[in-house]
């Protein structure tokens, strides 16, 4: 359900109805509030950004017996009257899946009654879907219902696919900066940040660029990219994640080959390398003699260790070891160990063995906060900033935590 919300959450003209108990909408609302304040802290939010109304049908125990179809019908009437949206998206909870409401029929009747597009998906919360299923399902429905082909292409224009913090987020901003090397300009970010009145602008793009990352998200976004290519002849670029220096270099080189602009790619790589090397010279000097430990507790699906190991090698800091925390199931631990061994020779410890490693380190890079007074910790982000900009940000944070005043520990969020 949060994926459904996020897919149109900032699309001007949209309204989202959760056919659910109040608590389900509260979860999505809390996620949005957290994202809002993170964006403010990172100077990513714009005061004029639209946020779609999120309304719950407020299902209760009685609806589990008598059904909630009438409740949904009344809610849709209220939303149309109160918010006057240009379209509505309905997300179904697992409760609705259990009681068997015919949501599609209610939506069809309401669409005819109000002469307003209403989108619903055959997903029912935890029963048969998850975040990316909802996100992809809504994006696919928007393509099928609202996008029109046959419009002239805008030369050197790009539509970004995905979210990752939106148009002002670090990912999109960095990608826009890299695309400028190829004289490409971004005209929108689909699906969550394209207004209803601007939907057809998507089909005028000369190229779509996938803001990928984790495997599951990237697979869903690639499906959208392929659909846009099949229906509207928009070629897409995706599959390479510009994280760390190796990823950034591959991303630029691969894009250059796709666009037949290899010279532009080489210029971009050279300039980004020079930019990185200037920071590395300063970092090596300031971190000389410092010792670092890395603590990892996330599954491989949510954390790839390669980019962190690459940065630690580049700054030439003394690595004491990698500690795998006690949060893994055996299979997940084995997968993470294999990923670590493929990118570094640094010794791997379990949490008990690694206690002395953590104690001896001047700096701890960690996916989970460590409960110790003296530890100087850098919390590794779930969604790290891409490109050389992301590398510089992490390096500067390592220096920042290393030179924290006095002998007191603390944490910096990367």
UniProtKB/TrEMBL annotation:
Gene Ontology molecular function: oxidoreductase activity
Stretches assigned to the Nitrogenase/oxidoreductase component domain: 3-398
Enzyme class label: oxidoreductase
EC annotation from Swiss-Prot or TrEMBL: 1.3.7.7
PANTHER family registered for this protein in UniProt: NITROGENASE IRON-MOLYBDENUM COFACTOR BIOSYNTHESIS PROTEIN NIFE (PTHR42956)
Matches recorded under InterPro entries: Nase/OxRdtase_comp1, NifE-like
Keyword Metal-binding: no
Keyword Coiled coil in annotation: yes
Keywords in alphabetical order: Coiled coil, Oxidoreductase
Chain coiled-coil ranges: 266-293
Name recorded for this polypeptide: Light-independent protochlorophyllide reductase subunit N
